[in-house]
Amino acid sequence: MKAYLALISAAVIGLSACSQEASKPAEASAPTASAASEAAPAPAPAESAPPADAPASGAASANSAAAPAAGNCATTVEANDAMQFNTKEIQVSKACKEFTVTLKHTGTQPKESMGHNIVIGKAEDMDGIFKDGAGAAATDYVKADDARVVAHTKLVGGGEEASLTLDPAKLAGGEYKFACTFPGHGALMNGKVTLVD
Predict the structure, then answer these.
(1) Burial of 128 (C-beta count, 10 Å sphere; 0-12/13-18/19+)
(2) Is the separation of the CB atoms in 178 and 75 below 8 Å?
(3) Is pTM beyond 0.85 here?
(4) CB neighbourhood size of 104 (10 A)
């Protein structure tokens, strides 16, 4: 029950941080769980572009893949205060011995209210990774020593960045995804990781 309440509280904090309205005084009554779920935006289909008024980096659209240039074994993924990554796909070259993904938080909110990370795992493991990570605030919402996690960054706030490095061979033989495991973010902040020639 405590984990459930913590998850709802985190979602309410995250939604209030994303609000376009001025912040409400502290004495205003807190929304109920049903109000929080009604206020939560529905996940957008993978093919839809972010809203025109949403803050975005402009470096890449939500539909473009974060693809390495020929011989390049690194890419940068940007995240913002509107709970969006600037890509829905990370392409990892098989030719690389190591591949580095840098997460750049282009927003201004602190990590306590709008933190982002990148966690890579098999598609079928992501629900368990989210569930176990929800109570792991001390380890950036990633369960310590979780064998299902291929690689992950630390949690970053606005203006910060972090990197992860992985062996592309770990991505062979399965469908892999990346997501932000900060509570309430994974439904919107996710994509696929593709191994390419």
Answers:
(1) middle
(2) no
(3) no
(4) 19
